[in-house]
């Protein structure tokens, strides 16, 4: 496990440093037997796309059984069901746990996990629209022709909030044992690749916050730069982080990629029942719309400040009537502020110094207050 990532992994402090340690001997025995039977079954399949698809779903089924049968699970008292260990994109330490009998018909069982996969089939098979998947790394300019996409909708990583690759290792290590030979390129590394991940996780950058921040901004700019080159019309970006620093990085990357935010809309996206009652979590996500930028020279700080204050004032009044409050309301104003700022090549103060995005967002927050 990524033991340096104390934000997403609480178990190393209690001596659980390896994924194998979060399973009891009984659970490991069951899972190892499932993997062994999977490999015997794979020998009966021919090497066709259909066979590989079937094997992939069976491997995902084993992954689902694994995540439901650990010594770190919790019991959902209200729903009277077994909950998996990653309720908040992290692996916390727990000191007692429920254990499902994998071959029964109740919560956490293998049949219960299979039912969720079948529900996915039924849901997605009713869609009449064909989907084409292009398997490529983020920021790959050659993936699509210039201006060949009408619109791009994306939900970028939230700075340092979630360690996507770190947590994915739990599933990766089981998938590597099942379908590692079916997709050798995908499972070529011992664990999930993390060097190119677009996050600001300092434990991947010599425990240096500044290095992590620069990596995130550089990677995000590279991705947005490719998107701008490939898109003819609108780019929609969802973001749900209340940190000014995270928004500064996002906005810098958008502006550096020759785009400007032209509008922003908050949407209630979080399940309120899952929110901690006394903690300042956002209940909404902000979607910002971007277009290729048409910069018009240099802006005067005082003039732009007035425009931003006017725009934010209108936005606060509108959002307040819709029921937005607190951090959700303040964060929703960031996009509108950047839309004014991004009209110019740069905004200068009377002494000739440039206004930074961080100063701009602080201005927007104060205006919203």
Quick structural gist:
With 369 residues, this protein is α/β, with parallel strands linked by helices. It is 41% helix and 12% strand. It has helices spanning 25-42, 49-68, 110-125, 164-179, 209-230, 244-256, 301-321, 326-332, 334-341, 357-368, and strands spanning 74-76, 81-83, 149-154, 231-239, 259-268, 284-292, 298-300, 346-348.
Number of helices: 10
Enumerate the strands of the largest sheet in spatial order, edge to edge or round the barrel: 3-4-6-5
Q: Write down the overall mean pLDDT.
A: 84
Structural class: alpha/beta
Q: How big a fraction of the residues is strand?
A: 5-15%
User: Which regions have little confidence, pLDDT < 50, spanning 5+ residues?
Assistant: 274-280
Radius of gyration based on Cα positions:
24 Å
Number of strands: 8
First-to-last CA distance: 42 Å
Helix content class: 40-55%
Largest sheet: 4 strands, mixed
H/E series, N to C?
A: HHEEHEHHEHEEEHHHEH
